[in-house]
Write a structure and sequence with these properties.
Elements: E1 7-13, E2 16-22, H1 25-34, E3 46-52, E4 65-69, E5 72-77, E6 80-85, E7 90-95, H2 99-115, E8 119-129, E9 132-137, H3 144-149, E10 156-159, E11 162-168, E12 171-175, E13 191-202, E14 207-210, H4 213-223, E15 224-225, H5 231-247, E16 249-255, H6 261-268
Parallel strand pairs: 2-3, 3-7, 9-13, 13-16
Antiparallel strand pairs: 1-2, 4-5, 5-6, 6-7, 8-9, 8-10, 8-11, 8-15, 11-12, 12-13, 14-16
Helix pairs in contact: 4-5
Length: 275
């Protein structure tokens, strides 16, 4: 792998710093702008060489594929081609001038890394209130962005789209990510312990109902992002999900799109409602 590139920065998400190097000033500016809140001077765990191609590397409609080839991971989609070696910690990405391509590469890389570190990426909004993080999970249209938009002014947005969950000792924490949804707003680069996991349903009233562990697991696994067909890593993710459900309250949250839903969330956590 060539290391004589002029432009280099380190993007740190969830406490995992990844160095990105490129000789293309346009790509470098794109990376610096998009991940400005997540740039770091930490010692990187991975080194990624970013190369620019003028056209999509294959059909733009190609589905993502993630698989092992000897000792490397290979990542394919219509707008990027990437390879990464867990042994050397080095990889390459070939893409055109498209910020969403590198976003997808980062999500895939972090999903692989988290599978071995008691964590995962989840289709969920996450918000910090009173020093604790709440996860609001659901499929597209369930109301993740709506819950984030209705959050009280003093709340801290970690993400309205892709939550980053990772265990540290005996506590699971949610970390801010730059992966934005409809709000088009990156999360804050901070973290807090997860106090509750809510599975969203929109309805005529606000209602919280605790879920039995098997149902919570079924809903959680449906919303975890994992791209690789690797039995060992899939088992790791399953074990982590089981552990999270055993430690964190998992609930069904039926809500009407009004700020009063946050009173219901706080009361469930034993906190007073907002006045």
């Amino acid at each position: 792998m060539t290391t004589s590139f002029q432009h280099r920065c380190i993007v740190e998400i969830g406490g995992i710093p990844i160095a990105v190097s490129t000789g293309d000033l346009g790509l470098f500016g794109l990376i610096e702008r998009r991940y400005s809140g997540f740039l770091s001077d930490s010692r990187p765990e991975l080194e990624i060489e970013l190369q620019r191609v003028e056209q999509p590397v294959s059909s733009p409609d190609e589905d993502v594929r993630v698989y092992r080839e000897v000792e490397e991971w290979v990542l394919h989609r219509g707008d990027f081609r990437a390879r990464w070696s867990p042994l050397s910690g080095q990889g390459t990405v070939r893409q055109n001038l498209n910020p969403y391509a590198f976003d997808s590469v980062l999500r895939i890389l972090h999903s692989l890394l988290l599978a071995e570190r008691h964590g995962f990426l989840l289709h969920a909004a996450s918000v910090i209130c009173d020093g604790k993080a709440c996860l609001f999970s659901g499929v597209s249209g369930a109301g993740k962005t709506t819950l984030a938009r209705l959050a009280p002014q003093e709340a801290t947005l970690l993400t309205d789209e892709i939550s980053y969950v990772r265990r540290a000792v005996e506590v699971y924490s949610a970390y801010g990510t730059p992966f934005a949804g409809e709000l088009a707003q990156p999360g804050e680069n901070c973290a807090a312990p997860v106090s509750a996991l809510f599975f969203l349903e929109q309805g005529p009233e606000n209602l919280v109902e605790e879920l039995p562990a098997p149902e919570a697991m079924r809903r959680l696994m449906r919303n975890i992002l994992f791209f690789a067909d690797d039995p060992g890593l899939v088992e790791n993710v399953l074990n982590t999900a089981c552990d999270l459900v055993s430690r964190v309250s998992a609930c069904r949250l039926v809500f009407y799109p009004d700020a009063k839903v946050w009173d219901v969330v706080r009361q469930f956590q034993g906190l007073p409602a907002y006045v």
